[in-house]
Structures are given as C-alpha cells and as structure tokens.
Design goal:
elongated; 3% helix; 1 helix; six-stranded antiparallel β-sheet
Length: 207
Amino acid sequence: MPQLIASVKGVELNHVYLTKDRTTLGRKPDNDIVLDTLVVSGRHCAFDLEGVADVFLQDLGSTNGTYVNDHMVKERTRLGDGDVIAIGPFRIRYLQASGDPASTFGETQMMAADSQMPSQIRASFELVSGTSAGLEVPVVKAVTTFGKAGVAVVSVAHRRNGFFVTHLAGSSTPLLNEKPLGADAVQLFDHDVLDLAGTRMRFLLSE
C-alpha cells in the first residue's frame, strides 16, 4: 500500500498510508496531512491514488511551491518509488508498496512467526496493466498489503514454505488466475496473475 513518510532534518513527523482517492496536505486543520507552518499554504498539494499502485502529486497553487527530487512541480506528476517531495523544511518520502501493520490481523499475525524462506528466493509483483505496466514491486516483508481501501485489499504473507495471498477487505473480489479469492490463504506460484479491481499483477519468483 503506498505511503508517505514526512520528516524534518531526519526526524520523522508523520507516516501516512494512502488509502483515499485524494489525500490533501496543507496548513489548515481539515487537510488529511497537516503541516502547521507559514511556509506551507492552507491547501498546498494533493496526492491522487489511481488503481492500486499509481499516485499522482498535484500542487494546489501554493505560495512556496512543491518540489519532487529538487524539481518544482508545475503540473500533475506521477510519483516513483523512493521519490522525495520537498515543501519548505519538510521532506516527504514516497514508498509505493509496504507492509501495513494495521492490516496484519487474524491468520496474518501467525504467519509472521513462520515467515523465513531461503534467502536466495526473491519474490515480486510485476504490474501488467495501467500506466505503471512493467514496474516490479518487491515482496520483502513478512506481510505486505496491496490494494485500495474500500475497493480491494489483499495481504501477501511470506511463510517458510512459500508465499500466500489472502483477501482482507473491499467490495471487489480479487481474482487469482481468473478465479475469485476466498477467505482462506492461497499459495502463490511463479507467474500467477492477481487482479485487484482491474489492476493486473504478475507474481514472479527468482533466485
């Protein structure tokens, strides 16, 4: 699940998972992310979540500007994994996918205790649809969540004997190789295709 980590001089201030269609940032208290300093405009910028993995940044006419990797944002810009957004003294790091501790419940909690596989095995998802087609997102945590809150969210758990996917939440039922995912965890195999509300992701294993 995409996330933002805001800091000042290396000190983390805020950690936000992007689950809404639009997440706003600004000085006014009704923003989703509030940075209360005069260098930040009342409505400074917004983060738009499209599909599962695409996040677009838009400056909302701020006084002091919004910068991505030291370049001023002049138009709506798609963020890449690891991009650093600068707003005055604040630095906001964008991460495209991450384990979401708020979603690790039930069976998922037990998975973490039995999560070690041989270190030479690597897993990732390759997006095969949307504007991010071709992007590979590594699966490196004991439990990683993917999806969009309220639509379709799955967890991928790293166990001793493989990787397992579970439908956690959302009104849209995810598909694995064109078949609906149920409530039980299902093992993933190389080149399995996961469909999250129209966003297709190919599971890849390598050594």
